[in-house]
């Protein structure tokens, strides 16, 4: 069978052709021409030649050429442009030039246009750029020369040729091109008078190019240009048909208006601006060719109206400017120029009219101001003072934009701007350079402090402190400027303390603030309030460190001084009131006296009263926050009483949740879940309504997926889940207390536990076994909201004791809006069954009895008020109350176990004795009653076959070594001399241990491979092939994030072999993993389930058996243990 490309080549060569039109080696006559087509395109072209007569083929090829150009304009995929040229060259090669073919001129012009478009959208530095333009002009000439004189499109051929000659003239300024182009426009106007507006417009552009090249004085150049444009617009007749031309009449009017605007900048004649506005209005109303025409007309009419408003203060001009620029942004929302223009005009208009609505949109100004400054700085010729001022103003604009948008790149640009201003000042030699230097340095310090709040990098706050100190040294003592700079320096010291916890920074902050206050300067109320608030914060930090009540008294005094300062600045007053509430809460928890508890409650009420002046959205957010703090304080106080059933605060908590929670609009879902959890406790203990308690726990469980979905990242998810860690345990306790069957209790427990632990052990959002990535529309919406909201939330967390919360009030409005947006997303999800299912607990699982085929499954649950075992056997699901796990007994044994672990590194006999007591208690309280319930009476012989039991723990019992429960008088296989030193990369005896294990395996006919200092990828690759793996290395248990508990392999810092990594593996064929590594079966996190550790991670990843360590162990004894195993 013949090669299709060769076949196509033969069709091209043996069809009627114009060798004098397409030169040898060019375009379709090039040797590799057919290679650029796909197989499908080759077959399509063969069909054109094979199935159609020669006179039809150029028309079909023209269709393909236009289609390729259309695809380019729709997709912006440049690969379509060479295809358009290729099809166009075939048109020119095969078109009949016989006089009987009236389409010959049009068909040749199609090739010329394809060349022109290819040239326009090819980088200007491309080698083919000049040739494409020359060839386009050549084929335009051919269309004119060879086309019929009476052809209807002949005027357009002249126009195209003149247009492309104008483009070449603008680049090369060849007088011959100018003369020919002018003749073309004249000829086009003669042939088709109806098209004069377009033909004369392009002629005007040609004249402007000439005069600009000749450096003609601008007003003279504009006079000629505008005269021709006027000729263009007044030549419009009813015979003009917009669709016949590639340039619109709107574009002509826009250029006419812009020329008036240009002249107004030279003459400062207000009439020129008036004429410009009139032309732009005509452009808006004239026939359009696309959105770009509409956009430019609206934008520049708005810009001119904004200038007129600044000149005359006419409100009608101001309103028109807002309307036009707003419409422009609807057409092109990403236009930086339109945003700058609207932003700047809104600022001026808002100042003029005192409009809060316009001020709320002021954020749009800043990005535009930034663009203005950057453009100005890019221009040469600025003197030192101008350059320094613009750098400083640019830095200020970036900083204020950051305060609104919380974009870190704005903050970095602000810092760079201040640094550039300082450098310019240093080089300028200005007389007031020192004073200006301190001003810029102070701005730099503020930006560095803000950057620290985002990055939490100590170097940022260190640099900020050095800048503040320099500014303070340069200020006049006891001046208002000194007070401001001293307050900022003291605040920076406090920020650094929150990172380093070095109390010296707090003390230095106290010293600075006390010094200023002791001067008794008669400061303005706002400054006095701010100083007292910061000093109160310093005392509060001192209390947190030393726990000495006197610091609470000092802090209370300062916050009260701030409130009585006479400041009318609402943000300062609200901050002081909120901080005073914190002090009173601390004091109430410390003293546990009713009077202090009542004082804290009264201050919380005062906080709510101070919210009333706020706008509704900010009020709701602050109100919800304060109401939550109130309920949380009540809960803390009730907890201090041991959740006493007769406690007044327990009753208050239940009442508060029932009455306040339905009114909270912006409370985070995880907070609502927590409130429901402890409301269930109150319903049971105080109201004696176990059924209501069970219903509240179910409500909390139903909200759990949403609480996870609406977290702001991994850290926030873990923090939220940490606050809900008791929920799985509560599901069992309250279900059983309400009379639900053990099977029902287990079903709810299993759903909640699976959702929570999926998130604890996974770095990706996963619910119902599906990832958020499976719902791209939902993911995009959530990410759009989470970015600004998480940043605002992070800053609020870092500034929890901030004295200056005026910017926080702005953020609270944003948070309210984002909370509303979250609710809208959740509302939308309910209309989609699949998305709605994503936000629900898993459906009921199948019969859990099947899991007990290999032995009983026992879930041991210990909660605040009752403890039970859920026992699953092949006969069904049963429950057993475990009274010895309740009350003080549990707390006492927790202390025993902690003491045993602590003593292992210093006093092994004492540790052994203590641990034996714990194991005996585990036997008496848990193992023995459960085994008796199962019918195991203890009569065991050497030949007895005992069933395997599967233990799952939840609640407080989760950290105990339940699997080792024993009533004997010895601790099984316990070896001494335990150590906590894990700093070495590989344990000293690791190689001896590995060698010993290898000898044992080889001696019994196995095949072994030793990996010395492997990295993660190597270890995972071998785990996929091995039956048994033995790790002798250090392990680390992460107390904050169980998914990060890891083995310390060679690259553990960059690529840790942690639980999260293990759960992503799909091909672990290993049957047994022996982890001779410290804490590989330990769980230090809030999530007390026994399986949330490294050994459990291997099992969840598919390895059925794992041996691991519960604590730190010396590797000397690890060798002996592994050999005996």
TrEMBL record:
It holds the Pfam family CHAT. SUPFAM superfamilies: TPR-like (SSF48452). InterPro entries: CHAT_dom, TPR-like_helical_dom_sf. Residues 990-1124 form the CHAT domain. Gene3D superfamilies: Tetratricopeptide repeat domain. PANTHER family: RAPSYN-RELATED (PTHR10098), TETRATRICOPEPTIDE REPEAT PROTEIN 28 (PTHR10098:SF108). This is CHAT domain-containing protein. It comes from Penicillium antarcticum.
